[in-house]
Amino acid sequence: MKIAIPYGRSSMEIDVPDDRLLAVLRPTEPDGAPEDFVLQRAIVERALANPVASPPLRRLASGRSRATVITSDHTRPVPSRITLPPLLEEMRADNASLEVTLLVATGMHRPTTADELGERLGPSILSRERVVVHDARCDDDLRFLGKLPSGGDLWVNRFAVETDLLVAEGFIEPHFFAGFSGGRKSVLPGVAGYRTVLANHCASFIASPRARAGSLDGNPIHADMLFAAEAARLAFILNVALDGKKRIRAAWAGHFDEAHRRGCADVARSAAVDGRRKAPIVVTSNGGYPLDQNVYQAVKGMTAAEALCSDGGVIIAVAACEDGHGGQAFFDALAGAASPRELLDRIGGRPMEETEPDQWEYQILARILNRVEVIVVSDRCPPELFEAIHLRWAPTFERALAMAEERTGPDADILVVPDGVAVVVETAREASR
Fold it and tell me: Is the peptide bond before 290 cis (omega within 30 degrees of 0)?
């Protein structure tokens, strides 16, 4: 069977022997999303006109002088060219003089470049609106809002705090340790200080069996995020769900938790895949650009494959990784470890206040590598980078499959998850409850 796997801005066609293919696991999208941008915008406008557990945004914005809209950075496929215009129009419907700041939620990622802002927002928005890129390490731009439920200090960007109205846009998909993206996540980690992110992403929380894709209730990371959103007075959200081609298929607006929960329930239904069968070889991706632009982000797609791969098996991860490793601390920790097990042991007893940058990402990758082998398929990144951090590299899928068969044997069964970040493996979700 020939299967298209998202890769960079296009796809890579792979050929899997029919007699060894157990299943191709994809989200079940209820309705096809429209191709036309006007029709996608109409989905957003309907959500804004019917907010969940909230007054209309125009009423919230009425009489306010300043507003801040948190928007996603270059690592997220939020279609802001479609979502932001109706959102801004709604905010100014009864308040034409409202001053709006667009705050780019980088979390602890590198700063979004001018070119990436232009691609994400479009020239008309860039020319009209004030845009600020969050810097988690700039103490002068952070304000203290108290203690998180976990005990960590809550620091949030001043543009989110010193405003009359805080709004966020984003999209909902399964998230490998926060349960789902979107909603409260715009504040933490989106526009939080680095000390706050480190506390929230500590080793014990990442190790929690409830910190998994599709899991919100009882998830300690989610609990901190909810608290942060409320403390920052996040008044309104607009979140969308995307299909496999990054088109808007659904949208929810309103209360930061209630609207988000409704969206998560919809995404959970479509994202669920049957994880009762495991295979020695699992093929996956990170959903293509922008999520597969570096190794750091590519770990997300690997976690779905982790739940489906037999002990001692092989994950083949198709990811362009044009931007390299994606985090120096991430790379250094893995490269400096004698083995994934040694790195896990070192992290295991580390207290919250000693959490290091990128620790959560290399903790999860080390967890995966401690049980299975991972081969990354990429023709856009040097093999030395992968090999330095305990990954294997292949320039083509054919070569990766041959390498995997050296470990599993030539007759090993294969599962394919074309987009690993778009699914919730049911057995993993049930175990985390």
Answer: yes
pLDDT value of residue 239 = 98
175 among known catalytic residues: yes
CA-to-CA distance for 261 and 172, rounded, in angstroms?
A: 10
**Catalytic residue among 74, 109, 134, 201, which?**
109
**Closest by CA position to 266, among listed 47, 107, 5:** 47
- Strand ranges for 80-158 from DSSP E: 99-105, 130-133, 142-147, 153-157
**Residues in the chain with pLDDT values less than 50:** 428-433
Catalytic residue (choose from 175, 201, 325, 390): 175
Query: Can you tell me the distance from the alpha carbon of 416 to that of 423, in angstroms, rounded to the nearest whole number?
Result: 12
Q: Report d(CA 288, CA 271) in Å as an integer.
A: 17
Q: Would you say 259 and 267 are in contact if contact means Cβ atoms under 8 Å apart?
A: no
* pTM attached to this predicted model: 0.91
Q: Compute the 3-state secondary structure of the chain and give helix, strand, coil in percent, each to the nearest 5.
A: 40, 25, 35
Distance between CA atoms of residues 241 and 251, nearest Å: 6
- Confirm whether 109 is a catalytic residue: yes
User: What Cα–Cα distance (Å) separates residue 423 from each residue in 113, 253, 270?
Assistant: 30, 23, 8
Cis peptide upstream of residue 34 (ω within 30 degrees of 0): no
Q: What are phi and psi of 3, to 5 degrees?
A: -130, 130
Residue 30: what pLDDT? Answer: 67
